[in-house]
Each structure stands twice: as structure tokens, then as C-alpha cells.
Specification:
With 280 residues, this protein is mainly alpha-helical. It contains twelve helices and no strands. 73% of the residues lie in helices and 0% in strands. The radius of gyration is 22 Å and the shape is elongated.
């Protein structure tokens, strides 16, 4: 246990701060049913637009729904989407990047395809995919994943291009080592650190894009409590009931800030080039 605590990750203040905030938000999301016994979709017109009080800690919306309860359950949706998007984007992008970087004759066609995807603004591509496929959790995840894959693929490809010319890789090729073993044993381990860092930024981006899609009405159904849906419900009554937007907006900002701080800390710790710049 002491050896684990001595790891550089646990001595990085950014990792501790970002990870601590993110862990708290994850616990809040997991314990949402225990923290609030109220149904997040229950409509109560007699309680509509109630300001924050002892009964409603974050007030109510225009349908009388408890904003605090909806914000807690909204954390579940946002974190689920971000984790799924990061996992899928990294998995697919890793395979594409490895193949593109190592197999020279496939590099051109694959990268031109990735460039074509990156040329389309991610949010517009996500809106188009959701509009074509309909609104569902799976559709939203896929719509956010597609623009992220080229970024991961290019990152992995860059690592592969630099590692491929190393003497130990050339020696393995000379000995007739199968391609899959070279990729798994010699090249893949070098992609883990940058992919971990990239995964945190993908999580932050996914949370934000999901909220934007929901706010624009192109995400999950308005009955499903997400931070974007809650903010969208409050935009028409913002002057009368600003709490409907401020509280879920605070959750959204805190989550993205925590993930970005964690990503910066991981980059500083895991990237050897960053260590040299910092004099570590």
C-alpha cells in the first residue's frame, strides 16, 4: 500500500484535486436513489417554480419537478455517456492507429478518411447522426464517438511512426516476428500513457457534447433527466427561476473542470517529455 501511495501520480496535486472531485461526483451519481427519494420524472404542478428551500434544496422547475433530484440523476447519464464514449473511441481509434502507422500502404487511405471526418465539426456530425437514427442513449453515444475516433487514431499513429523505427522493433522484424506480436509486445505498451491522458479529455468533451445535444433537443428525450435537458427546461423562465439553470450548470462545469484537471495532471506525470520540460 505504501509503495502505491509513493507513486508519482499520488504526489501530483492536479491528479489528487481532479480525481477527488470526480470521485465525489461519481459517488453522488451512484448514490442518487439514496440521496433523494423523489422521482426525478414526477410532475407536481402545485410546486412549480418553487425557489430553493428546505423542502427543495435546488428549487423546482416549471413542471414542479425537484431540480436537485434531476441533477443527481443527470450525473448518472453524463458519466455513463462519457465513460462509454471514451472506451469505444479509444478501442476503435487504437486499432485504426496501429494498422495505419505500421502498415505503410494502408496509411494513406485510412488517414485521408480520418481527415475527412475531422473536417466536419463534431457537434454538427453528432446532430446529423442523431437526426438520422432517432433519439436514444445508444444513438447519442455513437454520435459522440464518431468524431472522437480520428483524434485517437492520429495520436496512436504518431506514436507508432516513432516507435516503428526503433532498433528493437527493427530487430524483431529481422528475426521474423509476426506483425501482431510486434504490435502487441513492442508498440502497444508505448501507447497506453498518451491514451490514458487522451481518454480524460474525451470524457470531458463527451459530457459537454451530450449536454449540448440535449439542450438543442437533439439528444435524449426531455423526460430523461440530463443536465442539458434540465438547462433547456429552464431557459424560458430563467429570469423568474434562475436556479433551474445555475445548479445543473454548476454540476456540468465542475465535472468538466475536474476531468480536465485530472487529464493535465496525468499528462504531467505520464509524459516523459513533459517531465523534462518541468525539470522532473
Amino acid at each position: 500500500m505504501r509503495a502505491v501511495l509513493r507513486h508519482p501520480l499520488f504526489r501530483n496535486s492536479a491528479v489528487l484535486a481532479g480525481g477527488g472531485i470526480l470521485l465525489l461526483l461519481v459517488l453522488i451519481a451512484l448514490l442518487a436513489p439514496l440521496l433523494s427519494q423523489t422521482d426525478p420524472t414526477a410532475i407536481a404542478p402545485r410546486f412549480r417554480l418553487k425557489p430553493p428551500s428546505e423542502d427543495f434544496l435546488m428549487g423546482t422547475d416549471k413542471l414542479g419537478r425537484d431540480v436537485a433530484t434531476r441533477a443527481l440523476y443527470g450525473a448518472r447519464v453524463s458519466l455513463l455517456v462519457s465513460i462509454c464514449v471514451a472506451a469505444i473511441a479509444i478501442s476503435v481509434g487504437l486499432v485504426i492507429g496501429l494498422v495505419s502507422g505500421y502498415i505503410r500502404w494502408l496509411d494513406g487511405p485510412i488517414m485521408r478518411t480520418m481527415d475527412g471526418l475531422m473536417a466536419i465539426p463534431g457537434i454538427l456530425l453528432a446532430i446529423a447522426l442523431v437526426s438520422l437514427s432517432g433519439s436514444s442513449l445508444l444513438t447519442v453515444i455513437v454520435a459522440i464517438v464518431v468524431p472522437e475516433i480520428p483524434r485517437v487514431a492520429r495520436l496512436v499513429r504518431g506514436v507508432v511512426l516513432s516507435i516503428r523505427e526503433e532498433p528493437y522493433v527493427e530487430a524483431a522484424i529481422g528475426l521474423g516476428t509476426p506483425v501482431y506480436r510486434i504490435l502487441i509486445q513492442h508498440i502497444l505498451p508505448n501507447t497506453i500513457a498518451p491514451l490514458i491522458v487522451q481518454g480524460t479529455y474525451i470524457c470531458a468533451s463527451a459530457i459537454l457534447v451530450e449536454a449540448i445535444l440535449s439542450f438543442l433537443g437533439a439528444g435524449l428525450s426531455s423526460e430523461i433527466p440530463t443536465w442539458g435537458n434540465i438547462i433547456a427546461d429552464g431557459r424560458d423562465v430563467f429570469q423568474r427561476a434562475p436556479w433551474i439553470i445555475l445548479f445543473p450548470g454548476g454540476f456540468l462545469a465542475a465535472t468538466i473542470l475536474a476531468v480536465n484537471i485530472l487529464g493535465d495532471g496525468l499528462r504531467d506525470t505520464l509524459d516523459p517529455r513533459m517531465k523534462k520540460r518541468l525539470g522532473a
